[in-house]
Amino acid sequence: MSYKLFRATFFMLLYSGLCCGAGIIPLDLLRGTAGQSVTFETSLKPTPEPFMALTWSFNVTHSIITSTSVDVEGPGYEGRISLDKSTGSLVLRNLTEEDSGEYELIIIPYGAEAIHGHVNLEVLSEVSIPNMACPTEILIEGKSSVNLTCDAKGIVLDREWKKDGKPLQPGDTVVFYDGGRVLSISPVDRRDSGVFLCKVSNSISFDTAKCKLKVFYGPDEAIIDQDPVGAELEESVDLRCSAESLPKATFSWKFKRSVMYGPEYYIEEMGKRHLGEYTCTAHNGITGLEASAVHTLRDSGALTSMSLVVCTLLTLLGLMLI
Fold it and tell me: At 300, phi and psi to the nearest 5?
């Protein structure tokens, strides 16, 4: 009996009321792994003799096997299947993702009602290690943008992004595209420096890829500190300049007509010629940005003497008014 003739005979019996169908496959969904095997088991007990006719089909129109007095395997299933004629159970080997779909079993026993069952099969390939290329260009805060693409072979059912071990959420500058496949950051911020991880997975496997980003920034506001704060003539004094920057900033000083380089300006013995305005400039060689600060170096001893004179004059003036 051919597959088409068998199905026609079965449905003619079914709709004529001579027989009725009963579910004989316990599960609604089976999952398999590409390259391996899956067994479509029925709930039937083994019969002492084969059924009058039995057929398995795929997505309604494709015959897998029709078993009557002889077995006829459908195209593409030769050597891939094993049929238990006493229960109707079927083993399908060498699975591919194309085997995903609906499988239907129709059985006509001798002297009994026809029985019917169906089940869906989902075949997944193990996901590969994601391909995520890190950007090679220099990333500058507030100027650069970056796109990280997480691609993997196999059916990817879920993608998860993390930064420094914490789940990454979309925000003002962070956007996900293409179902989470692409992570876009525009513009980048210094807080975007760190390790980004993409995890791809399906129900049978998962894998991850990492990318480390470094965002260059600064220099921020330049700050000048004086040590000691109240320096007097003939004392040593140290001026220190600092600014947040990546990479570390380089520093230059200007005082009157002199220029000096480095974060510190050290005066071993302060004289009157050292008093005045000092300008520190921080420079970042990668971002090309600069930040400057001005500090006035004064003689603390002179200020103290002047304060005493002012205080004395005010005291005398107060006494004269009494």
Answer: -65, -30
Q: What does the alpha-carbon distance between residue 22 and residue 281 come to, in Å, rounded to a whole number?
A: 86
Q: Which two tokens stand for residue 79?
A: 């050597």
pLDDT of residue 15: 41
pLDDT in tens, 275-319: 999 999 999 999 999 999 999 999 987 654 444 443 444 445 555
pLDDT of residue 258: 94
Most distant CA atoms of the chain, gap in Å: 137
Q: What is the mean pLDDT of residues 252-259?
A: 96
Provide mean pLDDT across the span 26-38.
92
Query: Where do the domains of the chain lie, and which CATH numbers do they carry?
Result: 3-124 (2.60.40.10), 139-216 (2.60.40.10), 223-304 (2.60.40.10)
Q: How confident is the model at residue 5 (pLDDT cuts 50, 70, 90)?
A: low
Distance from C-alpha of 134 to C-alpha of 187, rounded to nearest angstrom: 16
Asked if the peptide bond before residue 48 counts as cis, ω within 30 degrees of 0, the response is no
264-269, Cβ contacts within 8 angstroms, sequence gap of 24 or more: 264/238, 264/239, 264/240, 265/238, 265/239, 265/241, 266/236, 266/237, 266/238, 266/239, 267/236, 267/237, 267/238, 267/239, 268/236, 269/234, 269/235, 269/236
> Looking at residues 237-255, what average pLDDT do you find?
98
**How many beta carbons lie within 10 A of that of residue 245, not counting itself?**
22
Phi and psi based region of residue 40 (left: phi greater than 0; alpha: psi -120 to 50; beta: remaining) = beta
Q: Which two tokens stand for residue 37?
A: 């095997």
Give the mean pLDDT of the chain. Answer: 88
Residue-level pLDDT at 314: 46
Q: List the 174-177 sheet strands across, edge first.
A: 146-149, 182-185, 174-177
Element (H, E) at 314: helix 300-320
